[in-house]
Design a protein that fits this description.
Blueprint lengths: L3 E6 L7 H10 L4 E5 L4 H5 L9 E4 L2 E3 L2 H12 L6 H22 L6 H29 L12 H14 L10 H5 L1 H11 L2 H8 L1
Parallel strand pairs: 1-2
Antiparallel strand pairs: 1-3, 3-4
The chain binds glutathione.
């Protein structure tokens, strides 16, 4: 077994959370190294690309959250063995990464520019990606994204939808998911009610 350390912010979301959830669900032993936002400048200096999350595997610090998700997903039995199903799993995870990048580009803008950029995101890419993600779910039967079972793609979507619903992004209405892609809220509830996940968030 590998010696694993996941380094990420101390909050229940973002790019590091799906890997934490996958390892927790599967009972994989890892060091969950969480740090406060105030320490980010110091921590990122100790990473290869000045970014988090990173997964340190037997002493080697690895970057890129979807690569990490695939790796832990395979160990956790949460990544498809079939190549085509794996492609569909990757498509969902990379789609969410693409729209996350667009949201991140609006951080640090002046108040007025941020309002305009976020409104454009809501009308454009966020609506487009939410609809697309919901279509993918529906075409797979509506419960899970791949193989009618929980995979790392479900965990990535779960974290994204929880984040959009939290209202933490100014000018992105909390009701956006409910208005545009309500089946993704049903999916989010389904994942949240999985006993290991419910237990993880209650502890
Ligand atoms: N392509 C990277 C992106 C990682 C990334 O940008 N992470 C953010 C935090 S969620 C970060 O560390 N940003 C650097 C900064 O804000 O200085 C990945 O897939 O992990």
């Amino acid at each position: 077994m590998y010696k694993l350390t996941l380094t990420y912010f101390d909050f229940p979301g973002g790019r590091g959370e799906p890997a934490r959830l996958a390892m927790t669900l599967a009972g994989i032993e890892f060091e969950d190294f969480r740090f406060p936002f105030a320490d980010f400048n110091k921590i990122k200096e100790q990473t290869p690309l000045k970014q988090v999350p990173t997964l340190t595997v037997d002493g080697r610090q690895v970057t890129q959250n979807n690569a990490i998700n695939r790796f832990v997903g395979k160990m956790a039995g949460l990544y498809p063995e079939n190549d085509y199903q794996a492609l569909l799993c990757d498509e969902i995870m990379d789609g969410i990464e693409a729209v996350t990048d667009k949201i991140v580009q609006t951080f640090g803008l002046s108040a007025e520019k941020q309002k305009l950029a976020r409104e454009a995101l809501v009308d454009g890419p966020l609506t487009q990606y939410l609809k697309w993600t919901q279509e993918r779910l529906v075409e797979q039967g509506g419960e899970y994204f791949i193989e009618s079972r929980m995979t790392i793609a479900d965990l990535k979507v779960f974290v994204w939808i929880r984040s959009l619903n939290s209202g933490h992004l100014d000018h992105v209405p909390r009701t956006l998911v409910a208005d545009i892609a309500p089946k993704l809220n049903e999916h989010m509830q389904r994942v949240a009610q999985t006993s290991a996940i419910a237990e993880y968030y209650s502890s």
